[in-house]
């Protein structure tokens, strides 16, 4: 009974927070749109006015992406709950997949004067996985690391083999997570900094989605952290190979594919303001 009451309280907090998360970007979008409307119809678009339009238009775009990210997470969690989210699994070089994702967010880290260091003990490790879901996992962890790491900090992404598992580590020099929150960070609706001054946006479902996506790959994720000493998220995935006729490790991405990836990264990082 106590557990049911606690879950109900978390659910109510989540719904209230979702309302805030949806309302805030919508208000920003509306305000920016009204400013653009005023500039176009009252001031014209000559001279440096175009810079104002572009700036407010970017604000609209970023907040639209925030809503898309939030809705994507809600949809995916709902699909997992009802058992309708499936993996598109093929054999991939997991080292290359993780490295490509890491490199794709370097500009976001540099915008906050944060250094990202990628290191691997192996150049190639074929693993049966869904690269799109691995991307969601890594982008979520990396966006959190950038969000909570101060200027001149570091983020380390490391890959190594341990027994029959490939281990992916995302470690930062950020604010860290209190020990009493370690068992709760992967729970749905829970925000790590809800008891502290809220300095970052978030709905409290990102890490719970990460855990579910890792478990869909028959893997596990754990946290090593202390307040003021940074955080390390450690993912372990089984090294399994399937009978796969599709060659995926050396396919050159098309411009359309690259553009799609850029947009996916931008959506995932949309709640970080630089």
TrEMBL record:
<keyword id="KW-0067">ATP-binding</keyword>
<keyword id="KW-0808">Transferase</keyword>
<dbReference type="InterPro" id="IPR036890">
    <property type="entry name" value="HATPase_C_sf"/>
</dbReference>
<dbReference type="Pfam" id="PF02518">
    <property type="entry name" value="HATPase_c"/>
</dbReference>
<dbReference type="InterPro" id="IPR004358">
    <property type="entry name" value="Sig_transdc_His_kin-like_C"/>
</dbReference>
<dbReference type="Pfam" id="PF00512">
    <property type="entry name" value="HisKA"/>
</dbReference>
<dbReference type="InterPro" id="IPR050736">
    <property type="entry name" value="Sensor_HK_Regulatory"/>
</dbReference>
<dbReference type="GO" id="GO:0000155">
    <property type="term" value="F:phosphorelay sensor kinase activity"/>
</dbReference>
<dbReference type="InterPro" id="IPR003594">
    <property type="entry name" value="HATPase_dom"/>
</dbReference>
<dbReference type="GO" id="GO:0005524">
    <property type="term" value="F:ATP binding"/>
</dbReference>
<dbReference type="InterPro" id="IPR005467">
    <property type="entry name" value="His_kinase_dom"/>
</dbReference>
<keyword id="KW-0547">Nucleotide-binding</keyword>
<dbReference type="InterPro" id="IPR036097">
    <property type="entry name" value="HisK_dim/P_sf"/>
</dbReference>
<protein>
    <recommendedName>
        <fullName>histidine kinase</fullName>
        <ecNumber>2.7.13.3</ecNumber>
    </recommendedName>
</protein>
<keyword id="KW-0597">Phosphoprotein</keyword>
<feature type="domain" description="Histidine kinase">
    <location>
        <begin position="17"/>
        <end position="241"/>
    </location>
</feature>
<keyword id="KW-0418">Kinase</keyword>
<keyword id="KW-0902">Two-component regulatory system</keyword>
<dbReference type="InterPro" id="IPR003661">
    <property type="entry name" value="HisK_dim/P_dom"/>
</dbReference>
């Amino acid at each position: 009974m106590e557990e049911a009451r606690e879950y109900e309280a978390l659910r109510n907090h989540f719904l209230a927070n979702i309302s805030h998360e949806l309302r805030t970007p919508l208000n920003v979008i509306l305000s920016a749109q009204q400013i653009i409307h005023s500039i176009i119809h009252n001031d014209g678009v000559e001279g440096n006015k175009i810079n104002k339009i572009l700036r407010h238009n970017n604000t609209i775009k970023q907040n639209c992406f925030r809503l898309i990210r939030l809705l994507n997470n809600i949809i995916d969690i709902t699909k997992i709950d009802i058992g309708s989210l499936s993996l598109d699994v093929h054999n991939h070089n997991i080292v290359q997949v993780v490295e490509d994702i890491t490199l794709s967010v370097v500009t976001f880290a540099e915008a906050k004067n944060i250094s990202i260091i990628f290191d691997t003990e192996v150049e190639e490790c074929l693993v049966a996985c869904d690269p799109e879901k691995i991307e969601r996992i890594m982008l979520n962890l990396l966006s959190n690391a950038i969000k909570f790491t101060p200027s001149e900090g570091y983020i380390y992404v490391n890959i190594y083999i341990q027994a029959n598992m490939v281990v992916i580590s995302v470690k930062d020099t950020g604010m860290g997570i209190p020990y009493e929150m370690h068992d709760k960070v992967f729970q749905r609706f829970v925000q790590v900094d809800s008891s502290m001054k809220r300095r970052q946006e978030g709905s409290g479902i990102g890490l719970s989605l990460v855990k579910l996506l890792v478990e869909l790959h028959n893997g596990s994720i754990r946290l090593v952290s202390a307040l003021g000493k940074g955080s390390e998220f450690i993912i372990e995935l089984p090294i399994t190979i399937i009978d796969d006729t599709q060659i995926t490790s050396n396919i050159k991405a098309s411009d359309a594919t690259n553009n799609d990836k850029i947009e996916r990264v931008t959506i995932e990082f949309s709640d970080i303001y630089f």
